[in-house]
């Protein structure tokens, strides 16, 4: 009896330790977000007065307003707004195109296997792990030759080119688990290549379409390397503009504006993460856990 | 008229030959079962008939017309798959209608066809459900409905019952047989289950390693298996295959089988052709005896052998008794309560049903 | 009729290949051809624009004679080793703790993983602010009364690389956790029950049975985190901009600044080739084994 009691006491202590550890780590992980949000809501004087972690004494949206429409990026003091729009104009077509192309590639590489299909897949798979430094110079030259240098369509083309490696991987691994008999049945029913794709395969692939869209959206929205390498000035995506705001070296540093700007750049992907986190995790682990 | 001729058909992937010159021919209204273990090439052959696999050599003719180059939709066939392959996002009705929509059948005709098929299969109350809301047996019916509305020259079934539980499998088997009787369409049916083959087929093709071992009516395959492989594959418990020496007396033969610590068994009165009698006299052969062809010896049926039962397994309607014969384990199917473990018994053998096989080639001796 | 159906069936047989061809072409050009092109530039004397005169391995010699590159390579080793060890360790620990029937598991998992949804630029910006010696954590602790507490790594050339490690671990350990958690959930519970019946304690079960069973997940985590480490660029740029001085230079930032800021395209290309070879040495065996296992299984 006494032993059982001490046993359950030990177990309870164990639970308390586990929960405490988990909560401490959670607080550490939330701390940067909290610091960003609270700093962005404080007036500059309060920040220089030494309020870092605490609640803002005075809540003001001035910094957000400044970051959105007044902050200077280089010599242009337009705020992040036009760059936010640039990122949207880049991310929407790039996500749609890469997801669509990946879907049909995955369909072909699983349901219409031809000799060498696995090799084709292998070629694309390596593209997922390409360090992009290895293609920066040729891509810059090529975009120049095509007249796409420094333009949003140019960035879309770059993101689609490398994005299809990921989307093909997603869809291929998903379609592999759909029974081949489904396509066979549709063939016997008289459906052709495109008909099977539209009427039979695509309606079953909503989850993986969501995964692909979220993954591509996050990747492309958060991209910095392509943005900073292939665009300049007013055609930059938001990450590049954010970095420019933060790295301004003249005058008194406006930390609250920096943080508001960082939040503005982070909000779209955070919202996607909060709304569809489950699918986001599936995208993350798709490259690692075997299909 | 919907005959099927498979004429010296071959299939190979690279150097690996899956099918080696398979020839099968069946008539209108036949129910052909392709029977064999997994990997014997039966599903490949079915897919080739359907047009889902290319043909490496030979010809397939449906209703006299060569279909080698035709795509599945132009072959006038319908197919039921092992996993049923129902389109998961469509309702039952949409599943059944899908092929007709592609063939541009009018709305009215589609509705009529769906009505007929769903009445026939008793699935009219399921028409607006999704496949995920159906039980295994219901999915099976829908898959058949999808095939029926096609009104094909040829029905193809790819192991349609293997995903069902035992009870349902028996029910659906009856259902398929009834359907065949009612529609009279020619059917090719793939299975690894010999009971399905026996109960459904008008013709059975037993396959192994891409070769047809025997093509015949089910009873003939059971009674006169072409070789040891077929003998063992068809029938449960399997046919007993026992080594023996053949003694010839005039126009009949006696198989002499050693039994440990007992006088040798003598199965007398086996009739064979005169060439076979001449050729195998005094030679070693294999004797094939079905479990039910043993019986407890009575006055009317004098004993051929005396043995001791090792294990006795009552199954209800009869008792399976296991004993040693000729150095191998042998099973006899006896009426209930006639056998007990460790008991000595005198058995007789129905010689007219006994089959002999060559010990080298393992083919039947006639 | 038969001729036309044959034509159409032949077209149907080729259709999938025709449809996949443009994607394949794009990948061949933008991945493989471009790699070759970079390799080509690395053996020329290209500076501001590519010039196609063969100079042999001169740029590689120059690269390896550059102190800044040595700093970058050394930093990559320090950063990768710590980043990998800490992310993997923390990720594994969190995954194991989360796997103990935790009540708010979903919420906690979401908290550990949200940094992964952020841009490295955002992460860098936030941590730059947090580690600001004048106004960040150091100030907070000083104000609490511990006046000689110092947390000024970000301005200390000796310590600055560790700030990149901290921010990197914060961003990526949740990713390791997610993969480990998926691995833990894939383990058959009966194995654990069997060990419990034999009287094994929970820590022992983890050490002897469960963690060894996580080997495939471990491999994935290590490979994917190595890849993240090698291509880390935005994080350094936003957090320290490679500084102070060249203290946090990494191969990725070196390549970028050599090519686009210092007009040493040849050296930049040579450094890119070095990076590619490092990644390939890790990734190709990994992909090969993953694909082969998949085909066998």
Automatic annotation (TrEMBL), chain A:
<keyword id="KW-1133">Transmembrane helix</keyword>
<feature type="transmembrane region" description="Helical">
    <location>
        <begin position="16"/>
        <end position="37"/>
    </location>
</feature>
<keyword id="KW-0472">Membrane</keyword>
<feature type="transmembrane region" description="Helical">
    <location>
        <begin position="152"/>
        <end position="175"/>
    </location>
</feature>
<feature type="transmembrane region" description="Helical">
    <location>
        <begin position="120"/>
        <end position="140"/>
    </location>
</feature>
<dbReference type="Pfam" id="PF00528">
    <property type="entry name" value="BPD_transp_1"/>
</dbReference>
<dbReference type="InterPro" id="IPR000515">
    <property type="entry name" value="MetI-like"/>
</dbReference>
<keyword id="KW-0812">Transmembrane</keyword>
<feature type="domain" description="ABC transmembrane type-1">
    <location>
        <begin position="84"/>
        <end position="276"/>
    </location>
</feature>
<feature type="transmembrane region" description="Helical">
    <location>
        <begin position="257"/>
        <end position="281"/>
    </location>
</feature>
<comment type="similarity">
    <text>Belongs to the binding-protein-dependent transport system permease family.</text>
</comment>
<feature type="transmembrane region" description="Helical">
    <location>
        <begin position="88"/>
        <end position="108"/>
    </location>
</feature>
<protein>
    <submittedName>
        <fullName>Carbohydrate ABC transporter permease</fullName>
    </submittedName>
</protein>
<feature type="transmembrane region" description="Helical">
    <location>
        <begin position="196"/>
        <end position="218"/>
    </location>
</feature>
<dbReference type="InterPro" id="IPR035906">
    <property type="entry name" value="MetI-like_sf"/>
</dbReference>
From TrEMBL, chain B:
<dbReference type="InterPro" id="IPR008995">
    <property type="entry name" value="Mo/tungstate-bd_C_term_dom"/>
</dbReference>
<dbReference type="Pfam" id="PF17912">
    <property type="entry name" value="OB_MalK"/>
</dbReference>
<keyword id="KW-0547">Nucleotide-binding</keyword>
<feature type="domain" description="ABC transporter">
    <location>
        <begin position="4"/>
        <end position="234"/>
    </location>
</feature>
<dbReference type="InterPro" id="IPR040582">
    <property type="entry name" value="OB_MalK-like"/>
</dbReference>
<dbReference type="InterPro" id="IPR015855">
    <property type="entry name" value="ABC_transpr_MalK-like"/>
</dbReference>
<dbReference type="InterPro" id="IPR017871">
    <property type="entry name" value="ABC_transporter-like_CS"/>
</dbReference>
<dbReference type="InterPro" id="IPR003593">
    <property type="entry name" value="AAA+_ATPase"/>
</dbReference>
<dbReference type="Pfam" id="PF00005">
    <property type="entry name" value="ABC_tran"/>
</dbReference>
<dbReference type="InterPro" id="IPR003439">
    <property type="entry name" value="ABC_transporter-like_ATP-bd"/>
</dbReference>
<dbReference type="GO" id="GO:0005524">
    <property type="term" value="F:ATP binding"/>
</dbReference>
<keyword id="KW-0813">Transport</keyword>
<protein>
    <submittedName>
        <fullName>Sn-glycerol-3-phosphate ABC transporter ATP-binding protein UgpC</fullName>
    </submittedName>
</protein>
<dbReference type="InterPro" id="IPR027417">
    <property type="entry name" value="P-loop_NTPase"/>
</dbReference>
<keyword id="KW-0067">ATP-binding</keyword>
From TrEMBL, chain C:
<feature type="transmembrane region" description="Helical">
    <location>
        <begin position="110"/>
        <end position="130"/>
    </location>
</feature>
<keyword id="KW-0812">Transmembrane</keyword>
<feature type="transmembrane region" description="Helical">
    <location>
        <begin position="76"/>
        <end position="98"/>
    </location>
</feature>
<keyword id="KW-0813">Transport</keyword>
<dbReference type="Pfam" id="PF00528">
    <property type="entry name" value="BPD_transp_1"/>
</dbReference>
<feature type="transmembrane region" description="Helical">
    <location>
        <begin position="159"/>
        <end position="184"/>
    </location>
</feature>
<keyword id="KW-0472">Membrane</keyword>
<dbReference type="InterPro" id="IPR051393">
    <property type="entry name" value="ABC_transporter_permease"/>
</dbReference>
<keyword id="KW-1133">Transmembrane helix</keyword>
<feature type="transmembrane region" description="Helical">
    <location>
        <begin position="205"/>
        <end position="230"/>
    </location>
</feature>
<feature type="domain" description="ABC transmembrane type-1">
    <location>
        <begin position="73"/>
        <end position="288"/>
    </location>
</feature>
<keyword id="KW-1003">Cell membrane</keyword>
<feature type="transmembrane region" description="Helical">
    <location>
        <begin position="265"/>
        <end position="288"/>
    </location>
</feature>
<dbReference type="InterPro" id="IPR000515">
    <property type="entry name" value="MetI-like"/>
</dbReference>
<feature type="transmembrane region" description="Helical">
    <location>
        <begin position="12"/>
        <end position="37"/>
    </location>
</feature>
